[in-house]
Design goal:
Elements lengths: L1 E6 L34 E5 L5 E4 L5 H8 L6 E3 L5 H4 L6 H7 L3 E6 H10 L17 E6 L4 E4 L2 E10 L2 E8 L2 E4 L7 H6 L5 E5 L12 H11 L3 E5 L7 H7 L4 E3 L5 E3 L8
Parallel strand pairs: 3-4, 4-5, 5-6, 10-11, 11-12, 12-13
Antiparallel strand pairs: 1-2, 1-14, 2-3, 7-8, 8-9, 9-10
GO molecular function: hydrolase activity
Organism: Acetobacter ghanensis
Keywords: Hydrolase
Length: about 270
């Protein structure tokens, strides 16, 4: 399975809008380092048989898919409904036109209900072959229970994201946990044995809705994955600083990064 990092930034991206010259607020991030330029967090999974699974449809989706040469897939997992994870939903219309059908959308019933309330037209019967609007087909999931997506087994688990919850993703030996500050015990059990874990690390200091560096290190000590890749990073998280200071087995993601992990098990 190939994991493509479409974006690894926080809700404002890096740089954030503004700045003295109007060209962005970089915070501690060196603007001359291209890996500090981060779009909103999303990943794409491509199995060896060609099955594709997108995670979230943020506002930078069109540019992200073009940059990675991704033009066809059948499945989306939604982690939660914050705008930086759903506001690019209309961009999937181009994918509908490529595959000629609605895309499967997997999320909790609560998340799907909110998406259907905010984007009702996306969940109406699709209009092939022209697709005048984006088209999704809802598939509710239950945290902690295996679900078959594209013929492969996934486990989606609960995450505390401050005042709301989000969904983490376990896919064989790989896991993805964006937008999380605390993990329930049952979710930590879902992560037991994970080898490669992409995890939220918005900043170095404590935050009410996002993990920070010391929190990630606590999880590392407990779960002991071989590889942790930080994502959803804000302007405190300078690439050069992280290269010099992150411990062995911990690294920063960057927009355009990709890596290989074993395919998850086939579903029943």
């Amino acid at each position: 399975m190939k994991v493509s990092v479409l974006g690894c930034g926080g809700s404002s991206g890096v740089p954030a809008l503004g700045g003295a010259d109007g060209h962005g607020q970089w915070g501690a991030c060196n603007p001359d380092e291209p890996r500090n330029r981060r779009s909103r967090a999303s990943i794409f999974l491509r199995m060896e048989d060609g099955c594709g699974v997108l995670v979230d449809t943020g506002p930078d989706l069109r540019a992200q898919l073009l940059a990675h040469g991704i033009s066809a897939f059948d499945n989306i997992i939604y982690t939660h409904t914050h705008a930086d994870h759903v506001a690019g939903i209309d961009e999937i219309r181009g994918i509908n036109r490529q595959i000629g059908k609605a895309i499967n959308a997997y999320a909790t019933a609560e998340v799907l209900a909110e998406l259907e309330a905010r984007f009702a037209y996306v969940f109406k019967p699709c209009t092939p072959p022209h697709f005048f609007r984006a088209a999704l087909q809802s598939h509710p999931i239950t945290w902690g229970q295996p679900v078959t997506i594209g013929g492969f087994e996934f486990v989606l688990f609960e995450q505390n994201h401050g005042y709301v919850t989000s969904t983490g993703i376990r896919c064989g030996s790989f896991a993805y946990s964006t937008d999380v500050v605390e993990l329930p015990e049952a979710s930590l059990e879902c992560l037991r044995g994970v080898q490669t874990w992409m995890v939220d690390c918005f900043q170095k200091t404590p935050h009410g809705a996002h993990a920070w560096l010391d929190r990630v290190m606590e999880w590392k000590d407990r779960l002991q994955p071989q590889r942790i890749i930080l994502t959803h990073m804000g302007t405190e998280m300078d690439w050069g600083w992280m290269q010099e200071n992150l411990p062995d087995g911990v690294e920063a993601a960057w927009d355009g990064m990709s890596f290989e992990v074993p395919d998850p098990p086939h579903g029943l």
